[in-house]
Amino acid sequence: MWKMLPRFSGAMAELFNMQSLFNTAEFSNIPNDGYKKWNVAENDNPFDPVFVQEIESYYGIQSFGQHYYTEDSKANLPVFDLRASLGIDTVITARLTGEIKAPYSTMAIPWQEFQSLPGAPANLQKVFLFQTVAGQAPPGSVSSVLVFNSST
User: Is the residue at 1 inside a domain?
Assistant: First the structure.
């Protein structure tokens, strides 16, 4: 889920592992339901520990990292910080390599594919963002699902 905060150069998201909800009715609903909960939260920081705990408790899922954009001299670079779940050296900077229109809503940002830049762990070379809800491409986006693909 995303909202702008001043310390980063673009949108930000707390990432949750939804694997345990796969093949359940809630798996399809959680992007919209989670966005609605965040949209009415008192604090609009998606990294807020109170909000993260509320999502974890309500859905029985765990946070496993954060996604945000940082500035480089030429562009905003997407960063996937997975240190909370995977340990040291799992901060991945990536570049956008493809996208398609979100198939369910003209209001959602595109589904995107990112390629990790050199230095990422071998099993974290591609990142896919999909099941997006509302927003626009950075700097103000909303995304709720992250999948890692170890193939290059």
Answer: no
